[in-house]
Amino acid sequence: MTAPNPSRVLLLVALTSIGLAAIGCAEGSGCPTCPSEAPNPAPAPAPVAPPAAPTVQSLTVVGPATLQAGRDATFTLRATTSDGANTTPATGVTWTTSDPRVLGVSATGVGSAIASGTATLTASYQNRVATTQVTVTAAPAPAPAPAPAPPAAPSVTVAGLWRLTTTPSLNTRGCDTTSHVYEVRLTQTGSSVSAASLTTAQPGLRPIMIGSVTAFRFTGTMRDASSIVFDINITETGSDGNQYQTTGLFTGSMSGSTITGPFNGNLMGTSRANCQSAGHTLTFVKQ
Are residues 127 and 178 in the same domain? Predict the structure, then answer.
Protein backbone atom coordinates (compact mmCIF):
# COMPACT_ATOMS: atom_id res chain seq x y z
CA MET A 1 0.00 0.00 0.00
CA THR A 2 1.36 3.29 -0.99
CA ALA A 3 1.66 5.94 1.75
CA PRO A 4 -0.32 9.13 1.19
CA ASN A 5 1.52 12.11 -0.06
CA PRO A 6 1.78 14.64 2.72
CA SER A 7 1.38 17.61 0.43
CA ARG A 8 -1.85 16.30 -0.91
CA VAL A 9 -3.14 15.72 2.58
CA LEU A 10 -2.45 19.27 3.65
CA LEU A 11 -4.10 20.63 0.51
CA LEU A 12 -7.16 18.54 1.09
CA VAL A 13 -7.45 19.68 4.69
CA ALA A 14 -7.14 23.32 3.69
CA LEU A 15 -9.78 23.03 1.01
CA THR A 16 -12.11 21.28 3.41
CA SER A 17 -11.73 24.06 6.07
CA ILE A 18 -12.43 26.73 3.53
CA GLY A 19 -15.56 25.01 2.35
CA LEU A 20 -16.87 24.48 5.86
CA ALA A 21 -16.24 28.16 6.67
CA ALA A 22 -18.11 29.27 3.58
CA ILE A 23 -21.01 27.05 4.45
CA GLY A 24 -21.12 28.46 8.04
CA CYS A 25 -21.15 32.11 6.91
CA ALA A 26 -23.82 31.35 4.37
CA GLU A 27 -26.00 29.81 7.06
CA GLY A 28 -25.55 32.85 9.32
CA SER A 29 -23.56 30.89 11.94
CA GLY A 30 -22.00 34.10 13.21
CA CYS A 31 -18.56 33.17 12.31
CA PRO A 32 -16.21 36.01 13.15
CA THR A 33 -14.26 35.46 10.01
CA CYS A 34 -17.33 35.92 7.80
CA PRO A 35 -17.49 39.16 5.79
CA SER A 36 -20.16 41.69 7.10
CA GLU A 37 -23.24 42.57 5.09
CA ALA A 38 -24.81 46.12 4.78
CA PRO A 39 -28.21 46.45 6.66
CA ASN A 40 -31.39 46.99 4.68
CA PRO A 41 -32.49 50.75 4.65
CA ALA A 42 -35.63 51.77 6.74
CA PRO A 43 -38.76 52.41 4.68
CA ALA A 44 -39.51 56.15 3.94
CA PRO A 45 -42.46 57.64 6.02
CA ALA A 46 -45.74 58.17 4.23
CA PRO A 47 -46.38 61.86 3.26
CA VAL A 48 -48.66 63.81 5.73
CA ALA A 49 -51.36 66.05 4.21
CA PRO A 50 -51.39 69.71 5.51
CA PRO A 51 -54.34 70.66 7.80
CA ALA A 52 -57.36 72.08 6.03
CA ALA A 53 -57.78 75.89 6.26
CA PRO A 54 -60.59 76.93 8.63
CA THR A 55 -63.81 77.90 6.90
CA VAL A 56 -66.36 80.56 7.78
CA GLN A 57 -69.29 79.11 9.70
CA SER A 58 -71.31 82.22 10.62
CA LEU A 59 -71.32 86.02 10.28
CA THR A 60 -72.56 88.73 12.66
CA VAL A 61 -72.95 92.46 12.00
CA VAL A 62 -71.81 94.53 14.97
CA GLY A 63 -73.07 98.11 15.38
CA PRO A 64 -75.76 100.29 16.97
CA ALA A 65 -79.42 99.33 16.61
CA THR A 66 -80.55 102.97 16.84
CA LEU A 67 -79.02 105.99 15.16
CA GLN A 68 -80.09 109.61 15.22
CA ALA A 69 -80.70 111.36 11.91
CA GLY A 70 -77.64 113.31 10.88
CA ARG A 71 -75.24 111.01 12.76
CA ASP A 72 -72.75 108.41 11.45
CA ALA A 73 -71.68 105.07 12.96
CA THR A 74 -69.17 102.39 11.96
CA PHE A 75 -70.48 98.83 11.52
CA THR A 76 -68.14 95.81 11.50
CA LEU A 77 -68.51 92.19 10.44
CA ARG A 78 -67.50 89.40 12.83
CA ALA A 79 -66.79 85.99 11.24
CA THR A 80 -66.75 82.76 13.27
CA THR A 81 -64.62 80.06 11.62
CA SER A 82 -64.63 76.25 11.87
CA ASP A 83 -61.77 76.29 14.39
CA GLY A 84 -63.88 78.42 16.77
CA ALA A 85 -61.99 81.66 16.18
CA ASN A 86 -63.69 85.04 15.74
CA THR A 87 -62.16 87.40 13.19
CA THR A 88 -63.00 90.76 11.65
CA PRO A 89 -62.35 90.62 7.91
CA ALA A 90 -60.49 93.67 6.68
CA THR A 91 -61.28 93.09 3.00
CA GLY A 92 -63.75 91.25 0.88
CA VAL A 93 -66.88 92.51 2.69
CA THR A 94 -69.73 94.02 0.67
CA TRP A 95 -72.16 96.36 2.47
CA THR A 96 -75.68 97.22 1.28
CA THR A 97 -78.76 98.92 2.75
CA SER A 98 -82.42 98.14 2.16
CA ASP A 99 -83.47 101.81 2.15
CA PRO A 100 -80.85 104.43 1.29
CA ARG A 101 -83.42 107.16 1.98
CA VAL A 102 -83.29 106.18 5.65
CA LEU A 103 -79.76 104.81 6.10
CA GLY A 104 -76.79 105.04 3.77
CA VAL A 105 -73.69 102.84 4.05
CA SER A 106 -70.18 103.17 2.62
CA ALA A 107 -67.95 100.43 1.21
CA THR A 108 -66.14 100.28 4.56
CA GLY A 109 -69.29 99.90 6.65
CA VAL A 110 -69.86 103.48 7.80
CA GLY A 111 -73.61 104.00 8.18
CA SER A 112 -75.11 107.47 7.74
CA ALA A 113 -78.55 108.12 9.27
CA ILE A 114 -80.59 110.29 6.90
CA ALA A 115 -84.27 110.29 7.92
CA SER A 116 -86.59 108.66 10.45
CA GLY A 117 -87.45 105.06 9.69
CA THR A 118 -86.04 101.52 9.71
CA ALA A 119 -83.53 99.98 7.30
CA THR A 120 -81.80 96.60 7.06
CA LEU A 121 -78.03 96.63 6.76
CA THR A 122 -76.52 93.60 4.95
CA ALA A 123 -72.89 92.42 4.91
CA SER A 124 -71.75 89.72 2.43
CA TYR A 125 -68.52 87.74 2.86
CA GLN A 126 -67.34 84.44 1.32
CA ASN A 127 -70.79 83.48 0.01
CA ARG A 128 -72.43 84.14 3.36
CA VAL A 129 -74.53 87.12 4.51
CA ALA A 130 -75.42 88.73 7.81
CA THR A 131 -78.04 91.41 8.46
CA THR A 132 -78.99 93.82 11.18
CA GLN A 133 -81.91 96.23 11.51
CA VAL A 134 -81.22 99.87 12.26
CA THR A 135 -83.84 102.37 13.44
CA VAL A 136 -83.19 106.01 12.61
CA THR A 137 -84.76 108.51 14.98
CA ALA A 138 -85.50 112.16 14.27
CA ALA A 139 -82.88 114.70 15.17
CA PRO A 140 -83.77 116.77 18.24
CA ALA A 141 -85.23 120.20 17.75
CA PRO A 142 -82.55 122.87 17.74
CA ALA A 143 -81.97 124.53 21.05
CA PRO A 144 -83.80 127.82 21.41
CA ALA A 145 -81.77 130.87 20.75
CA PRO A 146 -80.39 132.37 23.92
CA ALA A 147 -82.36 135.21 25.37
CA PRO A 148 -81.01 138.57 24.33
CA ALA A 149 -78.75 140.18 26.81
CA PRO A 150 -80.49 142.74 28.97
CA PRO A 151 -79.83 146.28 27.92
CA ALA A 152 -76.85 147.87 29.47
CA ALA A 153 -77.59 149.94 32.52
CA PRO A 154 -77.94 153.59 31.57
CA SER A 155 -75.33 155.99 32.73
CA VAL A 156 -77.90 158.05 34.66
CA THR A 157 -80.14 157.19 37.57
CA VAL A 158 -83.75 158.16 38.18
CA ALA A 159 -83.89 156.88 41.75
CA GLY A 160 -85.29 159.43 44.18
CA LEU A 161 -88.39 161.57 44.84
CA TRP A 162 -90.26 163.02 41.85
CA ARG A 163 -93.35 165.20 41.49
CA LEU A 164 -95.65 163.80 38.84
CA THR A 165 -98.23 165.97 37.15
CA THR A 166 -100.79 164.49 34.79
CA THR A 167 -102.43 166.91 32.37
CA PRO A 168 -105.53 165.38 30.76
CA SER A 169 -107.22 166.84 27.70
CA LEU A 170 -110.56 168.70 28.03
CA ASN A 171 -113.47 166.30 28.06
CA THR A 172 -117.19 167.03 28.27
CA ARG A 173 -118.34 163.50 29.22
CA GLY A 174 -118.04 163.97 32.96
CA CYS A 175 -114.40 162.87 33.33
CA ASP A 176 -111.90 164.81 35.35
CA THR A 177 -110.25 167.46 33.18
CA THR A 178 -107.90 168.95 35.76
CA SER A 179 -104.28 168.21 36.39
CA HIS A 180 -103.48 165.52 38.96
CA VAL A 181 -100.41 165.87 41.14
CA TYR A 182 -98.57 163.03 42.86
CA GLU A 183 -95.33 162.45 44.67
CA VAL A 184 -93.60 159.25 43.58
CA ARG A 185 -90.39 157.76 44.90
CA LEU A 186 -88.60 155.72 42.25
CA THR A 187 -86.06 152.97 42.76
CA GLN A 188 -83.73 151.70 40.07
CA THR A 189 -81.80 148.46 39.55
CA GLY A 190 -79.80 148.59 36.34
CA SER A 191 -82.32 149.58 33.69
CA SER A 192 -85.40 148.46 35.70
CA VAL A 193 -87.35 151.20 37.47
CA SER A 194 -90.28 150.94 39.88
CA ALA A 195 -92.14 153.14 42.35
CA ALA A 196 -91.33 152.54 45.99
CA SER A 197 -94.20 154.83 47.07
CA LEU A 198 -96.91 156.98 45.53
CA THR A 199 -99.01 159.60 47.28
CA THR A 200 -101.23 162.46 46.28
CA ALA A 201 -99.39 165.73 46.66
CA GLN A 202 -100.90 168.91 48.12
CA PRO A 203 -104.60 168.13 47.93
CA GLY A 204 -105.30 171.80 47.26
CA LEU A 205 -103.74 171.39 43.85
CA ARG A 206 -106.32 168.71 43.02
CA PRO A 207 -109.73 170.37 43.52
CA ILE A 208 -111.67 167.38 42.15
CA MET A 209 -109.54 164.32 42.94
CA ILE A 210 -108.83 165.06 46.61
CA GLY A 211 -108.22 161.70 48.31
CA SER A 212 -105.64 158.94 48.74
CA VAL A 213 -103.97 156.36 46.54
CA THR A 214 -105.32 152.95 47.48
CA ALA A 215 -103.41 150.80 44.98
CA PHE A 216 -100.80 151.28 42.32
CA ARG A 217 -98.41 149.52 39.98
CA PHE A 218 -95.69 151.66 38.60
CA THR A 219 -92.90 149.88 36.70
CA GLY A 220 -90.66 150.94 33.87
CA THR A 221 -87.43 150.54 31.96
CA MET A 222 -84.70 153.01 31.19
CA ARG A 223 -84.14 152.45 27.48
CA ASP A 224 -81.07 154.62 27.43
CA ALA A 225 -79.70 157.60 29.24
CA SER A 226 -82.46 159.90 28.00
CA SER A 227 -85.69 157.85 27.72
CA ILE A 228 -87.90 155.81 30.00
CA VAL A 229 -91.06 153.72 29.55
CA PHE A 230 -93.54 153.21 32.40
CA ASP A 231 -96.47 150.84 32.78
CA ILE A 232 -98.80 152.72 35.13
CA ASN A 233 -101.85 151.56 37.09
CA ILE A 234 -103.14 153.87 39.82
CA THR A 235 -106.35 153.49 41.83
CA GLU A 236 -107.49 156.39 44.03
CA THR A 237 -110.35 156.99 46.42
CA GLY A 238 -111.66 160.53 46.29
CA SER A 239 -113.17 162.51 49.12
CA ASP A 240 -116.55 161.79 47.58
CA GLY A 241 -116.00 158.06 48.27
CA ASN A 242 -115.70 157.19 44.62
CA GLN A 243 -112.76 155.33 43.15
CA TYR A 244 -110.85 156.62 40.16
CA GLN A 245 -108.36 154.65 38.08
CA THR A 246 -105.58 155.67 35.72
CA THR A 247 -104.03 152.97 33.55
CA GLY A 248 -101.77 153.12 30.53
CA LEU A 249 -98.31 153.33 29.06
CA PHE A 250 -96.01 156.31 29.36
CA THR A 251 -93.03 156.99 27.10
CA GLY A 252 -90.93 159.91 28.26
CA SER A 253 -87.77 161.76 27.40
CA MET A 254 -85.37 162.92 30.08
CA SER A 255 -83.77 166.33 30.01
CA GLY A 256 -81.90 167.43 33.07
CA SER A 257 -84.18 166.87 36.10
CA THR A 258 -87.39 166.55 34.05
CA ILE A 259 -89.01 163.59 32.33
CA THR A 260 -91.96 164.35 30.09
CA GLY A 261 -93.91 162.55 27.41
CA PRO A 262 -97.32 161.28 26.20
CA PHE A 263 -99.51 158.92 28.23
CA ASN A 264 -101.62 156.42 26.30
CA GLY A 265 -104.32 154.84 28.41
CA ASN A 266 -107.57 155.53 30.23
CA LEU A 267 -108.90 157.64 33.07
CA MET A 268 -111.97 156.01 34.62
CA GLY A 269 -114.29 156.91 37.49
CA THR A 270 -117.13 155.10 39.23
CA SER A 271 -119.59 156.83 36.93
CA ARG A 272 -118.14 154.43 34.29
CA ALA A 273 -117.38 157.41 32.07
CA ASN A 274 -114.28 156.27 30.22
CA CYS A 275 -112.01 159.10 29.18
CA GLN A 276 -109.53 158.17 26.51
CA SER A 277 -106.18 159.69 27.31
CA ALA A 278 -105.14 160.74 23.84
CA GLY A 279 -103.30 164.01 24.27
CA HIS A 280 -102.54 163.43 27.97
CA THR A 281 -99.08 164.37 29.13
CA LEU A 282 -97.13 163.24 32.21
CA THR A 283 -94.37 165.37 33.63
CA PHE A 284 -91.87 164.18 36.27
CA VAL A 285 -89.79 166.79 38.05
CA LYS A 286 -86.97 165.69 40.36
CA GLN A 287 -87.44 166.97 43.92
Answer: no
